[in-house]
Design a protein that fits this description.
Largest sheet: 28 strands, mixed
Low-confidence stretches: 1-15, 18-26, 29-44, 543-568
Shape: elongated
Number of helices: 13
Helix content: 25-40%
Distance between the termini: 222 Å
Number of strands: 31
Strand content: over 45%
Radius of gyration: 44 Å
Mean pLDDT: 78
């Protein structure tokens, strides 16, 4: 009898046994996925730091500083999603590899994630021990060489900066004169700077060094537009210790001394200079019209170009392109210097103007003075090795272009109170002709009119007082020291010799032309001989006529006596 099996029984017999999978069999895959996820998260978190510490970071840094004429080096930099920016030993080097700017440590209190959340805010940044090395040479600095292209590129147009607060701690500025290798150090320097709402605020700025101290504050508003600057600063400075720096900036022939205080305030739109270049004087001129400033500084001693000044203060105000200096009344070479300069910076060209009045009052004349300014007004004083006396000077008009002082137009009078001197080259020529050796005097309380125009100084009325004779000069001296003089003097007796009627000629005057230069004057001998011959001929002819006239008169008188008899 056949046995019939159920469907379920048949399938059970045919199907192979099914093995049960243990739960531990899937752990390797799950664990691998988990580890990979953790690694990806860690890689993402560390990505900024990894990038910054690899050659890719160096390339990014080079791209960011491409417009710096030099290089930027960083020893260590940390920055991550959950770690704030931190930099150690940042250096900016010039093209020769010399440091221009260094920072020992820089740290921000904002992480990369926080920066993204705040849309670019750097937060508070602390910059420790920043050092700027400023090298001076021929009116230029290494900062201009290194950062000039960068600032020129970013000067025009809106300034886009993140929000931040900067704190500078224990900073230093070292100024170096490349020519002499002398250096001056200003430290410590501290400052707090904040940027927010399109406004850059210098909340605090302070320098506390032995030779210079300053404290100030300021703001720059409308950073994307006019960039309106408002700043003020008070200073205390020791000019004796800064003398070398002043000479590096202004020239070796300027010396200042004394410990003084000063002040400066300034207001104006920095954007006005966006289109300006060093050669674009018109743009600079228009920009200066938009600035206002006040300044006050003093000194105890000042020597400039061989002249000595006493204590004084320089106070001025800039408005609408014109700087007005408060009236000066300074001790100067035993007398007084008085002036109230007006400096017209805009519209250009820039000029210095003086109001009419006495600018020099009873100053003592020195050989240095004779070799410089006075020799051009009174060329007879040129090269005087010994001189004593006093002069004053009045100015009726004065207009001096700052960029071309030789094109000045000045009119005035030199008042000679007394001058006694041993002759220099020009006066020695005249003294030789007149046979008057020794000390010579200028006419006391005399006036010499002068005018400087077209690079020459013209004068008239200069008088020499010889015993029994007066010598007068007129003419001009060029800024190249060329001479064009006429000297009016008695006919030199030594030139007349024993010619007939020499006594009659001695009372005559002659105008002698003198050319050459202040150091090498030349008398025009041909013209002098022509004038002498002309005088001699004229005197002889006059004498002959007089003799004929006298003879005719005597003959007529004798004829009348014979006809009418002697008059009784």
């Amino acid at each position: 009898m056949a046995t019939v099996k159920s469907k379920e029984s048949a399938e059970a017999e045919v199907a192979p046994p099914v093995k049960k999978v243990s739960p531990r069999g899937g752990l390797p895959f799950v664990r691998g996925m988990f580890v990979m996820l953790v690694l990806l998260i860690a890689l993402a978190a560390a990505a900024p730091t990894i990038v910054l510490r690899t050659p890719l970071g160096e390339k990014l840094l080079a791209m960011a500083t491409a417009e710096v004429h030099g290089s930027v080096k960083i020893d260590q930099i940390d920055f991550g999603w959950l770690a704030p920016l931190e930099i150690a030993n940042l250096q900016v080097l010039d093209s020769a590899g010399k440091p221009v700017l260094t920072v020992a440590h820089l740290k921000s209190d904002v992480t990369l994630l926080g920066m993204l959340k705040s849309r670019g805010s750097f937060g508070a940044v602390r910059i420790e021990e920043p050092v700027a090395i400023v090298e001076l040479e021929n009116g230029q600095t290494n900062f201009q060489e290194v950062f000039g292209a960068y600032f020129q590129h970013h000067a025009a147009g809106p300034i886009e900066l993140p929000t931040f607060e900067l704190e500078f701690v224990e900073g230093s500025v070292i100024v170096v004169d490349r020519r002499t290798s002398a250096e001056w150090r200003f430290d410590p320097i501290s400052a707090k700077v904040g940027l927010a709402a399109n406004r850059l605020a210098f909340e605090q700025f302070a320098v506390q060094s032995d030779n210079f101290a300053a404290e100030g504050a300021g703001t720059i508003d409308d950073l994307g537009g006019t960039r309106m600057l408002k700043a003020q600063c008070k200073t205390t400075y020791d000019l004796d210790r800064l003398e070398g720096l002043v000479q590096s900036l202004l020239g070796d022939r300027i010396r200042v001394s004394g410990r003084q205080t000063g002040m400066i305030s300034i207001t104006g739109a920095l954007a006005a200079f966006d289109d300006a270049t060093t050669a674009d004087a018109d743009v600079h001129s228009r920009a200066l019209e938009q600035f206002a400033a006040q300044a006050d500084m003093g000194w105890e001693g000042l020597a400039a170009y061989g002249y000595s000044f006493g204590p004084g203060r320089l106070q001025g105000e800039l408005k609408n392109g014109i700087a007005r200096i408060a009236p000066l009344d300074l001790p100067f070479e035993g007398g007084r210097l008085r002036a109230a300069p007006i400096v017209q910076l805009a519209p250009g060209p820039a000029t210095i103007q003086l109001a009419p009045g006495t600018v020099l009052d009873q100053i003592a004349v020195t050989p240095e003075m004779c070799s410089r300014g006075l020799a051009y007004i009174a060329p007879l004083l040129a090269g005087a090795v010994q001189v004593e006396g006093r002069v004053s000077m009045d100015v009726s008009a004065c207009n001096v272009p700052i960029n071309d002082t030789g094109a000045a137009d000045i009119t005035g009078q030199l008042k000679v109170h007394s001058i006694d001197l041993v002759p220099g080259p020009v006066l020695a020529q005249i003294a030789m002709l007149l046979d008057r050796p020794g000390t010579i005097s200028l006419q006391r309380e005399s006036t010499v009119d002068f005018r400087m125009v077209e690079r020459r100084i013209y004068h008239q009325g200069l008088e020499l007082a010889f015993p029994g004779a007066t010598v007068r000069t007129q003419g001009s001296v060029g800024l190249d020291q060329s001479l064009a003089l006429l000297v009016e003097m008695p006919l030199p007796a030594k030139l007349l010799g024993n010619i007939p009627l020499a006594g009659s000629l001695a009372s005559q005057t002659i105008s002698v032309p003198i050319g050459g230069t202040l150091s090498n004057p030349v008398i025009d001998q041909n013209e002098l001989n022509r004038l002498l011959a002309q005088f001699v001929q004229g005197t002889v002819e006059n004498a002959a006529v007089n003799a004929v006239q006298q003879g005719l008169q005597e003959g007529m008188n004798r004829g009348i006596d014979q006809l009418l008899g002697p008059l009784k």
